[in-house]
């Protein structure tokens, strides 16, 4: 079996895909794609929108993180990452929807990118206006998640794709001053992240 995952290793979505594959115990090759090569014909053949991650499983090409995670969960042995009950499955899908539709831009794309990535990799000062504009949405996302977490994981007793999807974004946000303020007092989210940090997969992929 040949399985390759393409993308920028630091991307929260690439980390989510890596984390899901790692939790399933899948042997895969991480193929780094520099950010300036996302629009090249070679990568566009894998992902026509010039994004990441992209997966090649013995010639079966797949892109979009949700699709990759669900494919891995259904295709390989190992612990199931989708809940058994309709209620937990619905909650998992709801949280993934929150991440993709509302959270990723505010937490990772605006706040964390400007605070962490822009100075470190692009040598420029953070765009303070962009950060300020993202704060209301970032707060709403944190409040929404805090309200629906069941614990110890997001949907209950077991790890699901919702946890895998969220934890890279959370890890980046918490490293910023804005994130510290937004997450202050979010007891369930704090306990959830502490629980995730005990997993070897999270230590290796997200915290490593």
Keywords:
about 210 residues, alpha+beta, Glutaredoxin, Glutathione S-transferase Yfyf (Class Pi), Chain A, domain 2, 4 strands, about 60% helix
- State the total count of DSSP E strands: 4
Summed up, the domain count is 2
The largest sheet is: 4 strands, mixed
Shape: globular
Order of helices and strands, N to C?
EHEHEEHHHHHHH
Mean pLDDT: 97
Low-confidence stretches: none
- Supply the CATH class of the largest domain: Mainly Alpha
**N-to-C CA distance:** 27 Å
- Structural Rg: 17 Å
Q: What's the number of helices?
A: 9
Q: What percentage of residues falls in helices of 4 or more residues?
A: 55-70%
State which percent range the strand residues make up.
Answer: 5-15%
CATH fold group of the largest domain: Glutathione S-transferase Yfyf (Class Pi), Chain A, domain 2
- Please identify the structural class as seen in this structure: alpha+beta
CATH architecture term of the largest domain = Up-down Bundle
Question: Strand order within the widest sheet?
Answer: 2-1-3-4
């Amino acid at each position: 079996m040949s399985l390759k995952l393409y993308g920028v290793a630091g991307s929260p979505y690439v980390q989510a895909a890596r984390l899901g594959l790692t939790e399933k115990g899948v042997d895969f090759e991480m193929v780094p794609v520099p950010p300036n090569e996302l629009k090249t014909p070679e990568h566009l053949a894998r992902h026509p929108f010039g994004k990441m991650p992209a997966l090649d499983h013995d010639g079966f090409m797949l892109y979009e993180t949700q699709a990759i995670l669900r494919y891995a969960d259904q295709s390989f042995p190992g612990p199931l990452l989708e809940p058994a009950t309709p209620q937990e499955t619905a909650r998992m899908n709801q949280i993934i929807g929150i991440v993709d539709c509302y959270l990723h831009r505010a937490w990772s794309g605006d706040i964390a990118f400007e605070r962490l990535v822009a100075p470190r990799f692009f040598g420029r000062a953070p765009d303070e206006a962009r950060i300020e504009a993202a704060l209301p949405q970032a707060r709403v996302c944190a409040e929404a998640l805090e309200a629906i977490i069941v614990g110890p994981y997001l949907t209950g007793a077991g790890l699901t794709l919702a946890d895998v999807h969220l934890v890279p974004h959370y890890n980046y946000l918490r490293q910023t001053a804005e994130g510290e303020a937004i997450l202050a007092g979010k007891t369930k989210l704090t306990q959830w992240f502490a629980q995730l940090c005990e997993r070897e997969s999270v230590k290796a992929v997200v915290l490593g």
